[in-house]
Structure prediction request, 465 residues.
Amino acid sequence: MSGRAATESGVDVFDVIVIGAGPGGENVAGRCADGGLSVAIAERELVGGECSYWGCIPSKTLLRPGDVVATARRVPGAAAATAGSIDVAAALARRDEATNSWDDTSMLSWLDDRHIRLVRGRARLTGKCTVDVDGRALEARRAVVVATGTRAAMPPIPGLGDVRPWDNRDATAAKEIPRRLLVLGGGGVGVEMAQAFRRLGAEAVTVVEGGDRLLAREEPFAGEEVRRAFGDEGIDVLTGLSMTMVERDSSDDAVRATLDDGRVLIGDELLVAVGRRPKTDDLGLERVGLKPGSYVEVDDQLRATNVKDGWLYAVGDCNGRALFTHMAKYQARIAADVILGKDARATAPVPRVTFTDPQVCAVGLTEAEARAAGIATRVVNVPISEVAAAFIEGVGVNGTSQLVVDEERRLVVGATFTGPGISELLHSATVAIAGEVPLDRLAQAVPSFPTVSEVWLRLLESLGY
Prediction:
């Protein structure tokens, strides 16, 4: 009966059961259904998941007004048109529109079009190929796919639980702009929201990062360029420091955060952005021999490595491989193809963008990662100010473009680009790395003039081409 749902002895039977209707879950469900399989998808919150309602979409919508104004201010002749201030109410209304005001009704039609059964509620694994959704028993003929994502991690700081800290959801769904914002964590979420709220009118924004630099996952120069830009905008950045205690003042409801050097910071809200943890603590992993609350380790076909018979898959953030929406979608396509009987494997390089101004865009290996892997590494970099398009874009348009090259194979294995609005340059590097395009062949790809992509010409010239 493959391809049709059925009910047997009170149990609803499908070919595939997907737990979680975020980007990963949606895509694996849709691809399996398009391949002729019957599919059920269980979701306890909103169809569309974290990205659509509390992550990528609302956060970038909040960043956009400030980006547009900053871009105009760099251009002589246009700068005078930015004398006013951002319409915060309109910006928040646009965010509400982008999230459909946290209503997923408009997301349901594609499920109906593919005859995917939506089961609302909390899903838990109960055994091999069996799932319970709030008392409703489901069984899979072929596979169960976990796509539950992650939630914000909260560090064990005394007093943190009592001060009503923001996580990413609170920040992206905020109804007003706090006058003073404290941000704990200098990764992607922390720096994006710090700049968004500063540009939307927060009078004081302070970022506290325990490491020695912002964006520790990326090349050191990238975090330093963001830090300089933040300084120019009045965003304070404190690195190498931790919060040892936080409390809310009962008289004015302000948050007081004590640092390990004795300083006390005061804010109206505290955004905690120190990382993520998998939403697998109440999933029933113990029923199939896995540890609750842990990432579900998978192989390159997205099968859970410690579960017999290969029926359990995990895609997206919950497997810990690469916590990005685009990688969840990619993994979902691979998993679906494997379930459909194809020999597919997830081996793609990971592109990543931090949407601050300057943007930080990277794919593949950093220099340190390449050297640690034993690659015969050569690194070249070019300031984007060296191309004519940077002058055309405006005054003070700066940034860095860098390639990490495997000298023995003459291939690009990593790339980083920084600068205003430079994220659209990243896909060319992703194609070069994924396609293993030799440098001499890459040199035949001529960038048009005058575009910022001319930095590719400068980079290849630095490599002798």
